[in-house]
C-alpha cells in the first residue's frame, strides 16, 4: 500500500473496531512500527484520531466522513436491520424522504418492493437503485454534487425540499449525541437537513450506535427535534434511558 492507502485503512479499521493497538496495525499492514507511527502522526495532525493508553482511537470531534463506497461496508449487518425496521414505519400512499446515506440505502432496498409510495431523495445511489421500480414515484432534489457521498447538498437541494410536503423523512447522520445534537463536519449538508425539519410531518433519525458520541463542527439540530430514533441494541442502556426522558420514540433493533 502507498501511504495514503495505509492511512485510509487505519481510519476505516477504527470505524469498525473503535480502538486498535500499534502492534496490531504493524501486523495487519505488514510494515514497521516506525511506518505505522508516522501514519498515525499524520492522522492526528488531520484531527481524525487520538492516541490512547490502548493504542489509537477515533477523535470524537469528527472532521471528515468516509466516502459512501467505504461506509457501505462498515457495520453493514446493523444498517440492514435498522433499514428493514425503518421501512416498516412507512404507510401506503406516503411521500417518503430518504436522506443520503448507506443506512437509508437499506431502507430503499426494502421499500423497492412496495407499491403506492412516492420516494424523494438527494442520494444518487438510492435513485439509481429505485429507477427500475416502475410502481414507485421517484424524485431527486438535484443541487450541488457531493462526489464523496454520491449525493446533492447545499442551497439548491434545500430549496427543492421547501416546495414539498413530506409525510416521513428518514434522516442520516455521521455524528450525534445529547449534548451536541445532530451534527456534521460538512456545512453544505446542514441546509438540506434543516429544510427537512420544516417540511416533514414525521422525522426519523437512522443511525447505528457507532456514530453516537461523535460530533461535527456544524450543528443541524437538537435531538429533541426528531420524532423517532432507530438504532441498534449496542447503544448503551444508560444512553437509552436518557432518550426515554425526551418526547420521542426510541426504537432499538435487535441484530
Structure description:
With about 260 residues, the protein is α/β, with parallel strands linked by helices. The chain is built from 10 helices and 15 strands. It has helices at about 5-15, 20-30, 35-45, 70, 75-85, 100-110, 125-130, 155-160, 185-200, 235-245; strands spanning about 20, 50, 55-60, 95-100, 120, 135-140, 145, 150-155, 165-170, 175, 180-185, 200-205, 220, 230, 250-255. The radius of gyration is 19 Å and the shape is globular.
State the main characteristics:
alpha/beta; 10 helices; three-stranded antiparallel beta sheet; Rossmann fold
How are the elements arranged and paired?
Blueprint: H1 3-17, E1 19-20, H2 22-29, H3 33-45, E2 49-52, E3 55-58, H4 68-71, H5 76-87, E4 95-98, H6 102-111, E5 118-121, H7 124-130, E6 137-140, E7 144-146, E8 151-153, H8 154-161, E9 166-172, E10 175-177, E11 181-184, H9 187-199, E12 200-206, E13 218-221, E14 228-232, H10 237-244, E15 249-253
Parallel strand pairs: 4-5, 4-9, 5-6, 9-12, 12-14, 14-15
Antiparallel strand pairs: 1-3, 2-3, 7-8, 10-11, 11-13
Entry summary:
The chain has 255 residues and is of the alpha/beta class.
Gyration radius over CA? 19 Å
State the distance separating the first and last CA atoms.
34 Å
What name is given to the CATH topology of the largest domain?
Rossmann fold
Strand order of the largest sheet: 6-5-4-9-12-14-15
Count of β-strands: 15
